[in-house]
Amino acid sequence: MLQQQQTRTNSRGEAYVIGPTGAPLTLRDLPPQDTGRWVIRRKAEVVAAVRGGLLTLDEACERYSLTNEEFLAWQKSIDRHGLAGLRTTRLQQYR
């Protein structure tokens, strides 16, 4: 399992973590609350934000209308198979 990241602060005083692309990720950079299409990058950003302490699990689930089980499945897929594990079209291959 991946270790939890530390939250850092940028020059504007905003908390950030390193996102899945290697770039800093702040709350402003997270997907919109009304996101309907969950591509790999967006899922990975939400997981990184929770792991890094930008959001709690409950805040993420409420913000994005996710169940705890759905979020934990994303996290487990990343841990087991990397970002490719988040592909919905490949889900059966990774089970």
From TrEMBL:
Residues 1-12 have a biased composition (Polar residues). Gene3D superfamilies: Winged helix-like DNA-binding domain superfamily/Winged helix DNA-binding domain. It comes from the Bacteria. Residues 1-20 are annotated as: Disordered. InterPro entries: DUF1153, Trp_repressor/repl_initiator, WH-like_DNA-bd_sf. SUPFAM superfamilies: TrpR-like (SSF48295). This is DUF1153 domain-containing protein. It comes from Phenylobacterium conjunctum.
